[in-house]
Each structure stands twice: as structure tokens, then as C-alpha cells.
Amino acid sequence: MLKFASICPHPPLLIPSIGKSYFSKIKPTVRAMNELGNQIKEKQVDTIIVVSPHGPVQMDAMSVNSTKCLQGDFTQFGDNTSMRIENDIDLGASIKRIADSRNIPTELVGDGIFLDHGAMVPLFFLKKHVPGVKVVSITFSYLDYQKHFEFGEVIYEVIESADKNVALVASGDLSHRLTPSAPAGYSPEGKIFDELLIDLLEDNKVGEILSLDSDFIEEAGECGLRSIIILLGALSNLEYKFEKLSYEGPFGVGYLVGKFEIM
Fold first, then answer.
1. CATH homologous superfamily of domain 2-262?
2. Could you say which of 28, 153, 231, 241 is the most buried, measured as most Cβ atoms within 10 Å of its Cβ?
3. Which pTM does this prediction carry?
């Protein structure tokens, strides 16, 4: 059963040993992520499915990590924080099997594929509240948005047929172009995109999210929209309410933390 659904940002600065002096500038995001951690504990979750933009992205197929023990670290960010988590291989294999039957290209990937920071940052806050939790690590593709939405529907179908409590986490930052010093440079469309997306999520206007103009999205410089669309697909047959727990962009990148209260 799907017990928990959220949108999480993934800046490595959220890891205290990496953020250091910058940590104080993202307090609202840290508080919101800790709030999600407390909520996932209440849901008694057995498996966390996390969808990230930063794993082995394929142009024409979704990727599901099939490595028995999922592991990764933050050495590329100058930090030795690491994690090892048991993979829910059966759930991941079921997602591929059903996706294939729905003509949604999906590949099992392993053999040296490590957890990326898009998965690890949310897991840093969530998994410590649910000891023994397993994880399914998914990377989206560059297939169209409708395929991502349908992939989310597949994930929900698999979750509902599993005898366990499951959390689904859409990892992704919003615009990377909020300020002149932002990683992708400045664009006024960045702020507009972030505000519009949050409004559409709060108003449950999924159709409008799916039909956002591609040039507008490109100009905004986001990285999380496909993750969010997969999550919306998973929620499409449920009644839910989206709640923004925090949003800020102190370093020119939009960090949204949100939860979906499933009715």
C-alpha cells in the first residue's frame, strides 16, 4: 500500500558535514525534511522508492537499480558520508515487468551503479527513521512526460499488489536559474516556473503540469519535473492533497519540500 508520498530537493549542502557554514542558510528546508522523516516513521514504511534525476539516465528507458546492496557516498563533494541499504529487488523487478507489459521501456541496471546524490540526500533524512527499510532506486528517462506519468501508474499498480507499506519520493530541485549567481545563470522564467508549478500542485491541476510549454521548462533550468510527474502518475487514482512544507532558493536553485496527504 502507498502510505507516503513526497517531493524532496537534493542539494548535498543538506548534509551537515558538507553544508557547514552554509547550513544556516537553508534552515527551512532542513526543518521540512526532518518533518518528513518524522512522518515516514509514523507510516511504518517497509520500502522507499526514490526517483532521481542523477542516476544512469537513459534517453529512451527508465532505469531501475538491480544491485543487491545499494551503496553510495559523497566523496565527490569532499565528504566521507556514505550509506548502504538493502535493495527491494522483488519490487523493482515487478516494476520492470509491468512497465514492459504497458510498453514503457524500462531497464534493470547494476554492476557498479552506485546511489547518486539525488537519491542519497532524501534518504539521509528518511531512512534513519525506519530501521531496516529497503529501497528501490529509479532514474527517469528522456521519454515524453506522458510516458513518465504512465510509469507512475505502473509503480502504483505494483505497490498496491505488494504486501508491504511503501513510500514514493520524487527527488528533484526546481529552477537552477533564480539569481545571477545561480549554477545555470539567471533567467526571469526560473521564478515564474517555480511559483507556477507549486500553484498547480496545490490546485491539483495535473493536466496543466503535463502540458507546460517545453521551451518555458527548458528556460527555467529545472531537474525535478519528470520525478514529480512520475509521482503524480502514481497518485492519479487516489484522492490526495498537496502541502508545501517549504520552498526557498538561497543559492539560485529552487528547493521544494512537499508532501501528499493521501485521503
1. LigB-like (3.40.830.10)
2. 231
3. 0.97
